[in-house]
Structure formats: C-alpha cells, structure tokens
Amino acid sequence: MQPPFLLPDALARDIAARFGTPAYVYSQAALEQQAAEALAFPVAYGLTVRFAMKALPNASILRLLDRLGLHFDASSGFEATRAILAGIAPGKISLSTQEFPVDFARLQQAGIAVNACSLAQLDAIGRLFPGTPVGVRFNPGKGSGGTGKTNVGGPDASFGIWHEYATEVRKCAEKHGLKITRIHTHIGSGSDPLIWQQTSHLSLALARLFPDVDTLNLGGGYKVARVSSEKGTDLQRVGAPVREAFEEIARETGRKLRLEIEPGTFLVANCGVLLARAQDITDTGAGGRHFLKLDTGMTELLRPSLYGAQHPVTLIPSKPGISGPQRDYVVVGHCCESGDLVSCASGKPEIIATHRFPEAHIGDLCQIGGAGAYCASMSAKNYNSFPEAPEILLLSNNTPQLIRRRQTLAQIMQNEIRAAD
After folding, report:
1. Residue 332 needs a FRET pair 20 to 30 A away by CA distance; which of 108, 211, 269, 303 works?
2. Residue 117 is among the residues annotated as catalytic for this protein
C-alpha cells in the first residue's frame, strides 16, 4: 500500500498560486495504482470492485475509476443519480441506502442493482416490483472500526438486517416472489484481518441459507495508514483465506459465488492532499501553546473533529531555504469553533495534540495528507459561510486540471428566499 501522496514543494507553490488555498489536489497516478491493487484482490470465481462513491463523488474521479474497470456503490438515491449524470452506466451501480429513495422506481427501472437494508425496504421493493431479483444487506453480528463511529456492524449498528432475522427475510421474499441473488455485509473501517475474515465466514453462512444467491458482497472498510502510527489493511492477507472459503463452498454445494468488495478509503484516501496556507500564528504566553492557524479547517477536513482522525501535516516555508528552530504547533482551522482542530489525539477529537515544524510564518503553505477520502465529500460545508474549496486532479504528466471550481458567496446564498419585510 502506498504512503500518502504529497506534492513537491515547487509544484505545491505553483498550484496555490494558480488556484488559491484551500484546495484539494488528487493524484491520477496514485489513483491508478490503488485501483490496480484493489482489482488484484484474491478471488476464486470472479470479482467486482465497487468504489464507495461517498468517499469522493467528483464526476471526474468517477469517470477515471470507471475507465480503470471499477463499478460503483451508492449510499443514497441522490448518489446513484449523481453517478448516472457523471456518465456511469446504471448497470455498474449498486445502491445500499439507509433512506429508501422516493424515486426508487425510476432507479430500479434504469437498471441499478439494489440491496434491501431493512425488512421495511425489502417489503417496499416487493410491493413495487414483485417477482424481481434483489440483494439483501445483513448485519452479520460483528464489526470493526477505530471508534464506535466507524464501526457499522454488530449490535450497536443500525446498518443492514440483523442476521438472526434471516427467516423473516425469507418469508418476505416468498410473499412477494422476490429472488434473493445477492448477500451484502459491511463491518466498518478497522484493519484487523482476523475480524474481517471471521465476518466473511459469517456472511458465507448467510449465503448458504438462500439457494439463489450467486454473489456475495463483503463491503469495504479496508483501512489505510495515513500516518506512521496506523496500520493499513493488506488486501492479499485478508483476501487469501476468503478465497479458500469460497472454494470450499463450491466443493460442498457446487455454487461458485462471485465476490464483490466496496473500497472507498482504500482507493482514494492517500491519493489526495488538502493544500492550505498559514493565515495567522498566535501563542498563549510562556508555558502556553503556539497555534498555527490555517485558511482551512472543518469546512474541508471534518475527520479530526469528528473522529480524532490523524492526518500528516507538512509545512512548506514561504521563503525556501530559510528555516528556524523546531517548534511544537497546535494546527487549527479557520472556523469559530473550539473543536476545529487538525492537531488532536488519535481517536479523541477533544484532546489537543501538536505537530513539530521548523518555525512557521504567516504565508507558509501546509499540505494535509490522506485527504482523498471523506474530506471534500464530508465536511462542515459553508460553516461560517466559507465557500467550498476547489478540487484539482494532477494528471499523470503532472499537469494540474481543475475539476471543481471554488464556490462563491453568491452560490452559497442562491437558494435563500428573502422574507417579506
């Protein structure tokens, strides 16, 4: 697995001068490398790799991954439609959603694959489209995640139908003549290969209960190491025992199940940086702290405030070749919010941590690594009325290409309606 992508200092300065800061920059070369690694996942009888588009839904990124041979996982009806509008064929899209879309009939008729994520959803699908093939998402009873907020399996998670309700699933399917052809599970974003393999076996046991199942989707959650203290997921290590389990079922039953996986973070997290600028530097006196204030924050990077997530931060001096003594800085965002911290303790967003840099100056650039996943797509958008940052794709020839413009204040306000005076 590749380390976080970082821009060379000169290229970072050039991009900041051309597009301003803050700005997201994604590496096409890094995206291609990660896609190739995901497509090499150990498999027995066929593989579909679906990009969890909630991680980074920019149309240019979707089209790039489409060209590389990936399919797509949508987490809402809006995401499914967004993928179609980006040019993705409906037959390459799978929908697993917490909220049943009001336009579900249109999406189903367009040809997307659907996984019922609750008994109520399964019943609704049966009433709308009796006698059709359908997938079912189960909660297999186990989960994995760095925090409770990143664990989507087990008794504390609302995602999917609890595994003990398989009989109710069968009864509902029989009531509407539905043919269950796919089983879907997802456990979270932990990196423990043992838990992942155990859950895979639980998922295979569920597939045994439904004789028409020809595809097992084991979700995503393959953790990447954004910083040196983290441990990433080795796809070959977690995948080899799963392949053996698929082969065992084939020997026992004659059923050669196709495997689907849905990586999001794994594919894009370490392929992007958030480029920012130091807009102020303050301290709290002798024995206090030094604060490096950036022109970005939870409006572009919510994960530290939300999860206590770790991101590498690199300082690029505004005056190359001049560096002062090393100093510990608390890196903070530009929002009027005490929780807008880039520097926080792992898994503890409320605890302040520091980054050590050469002496910083107003105007210095900072690169925040590991910003390709759940950053542009998941932020405190427009908090304090800060506009959305632009997104830039660094092509394979190192040419930066704008793939989303910076939002304007007028665009933030365009849907507001003035009340009568």
Report:
1. 269
2. no
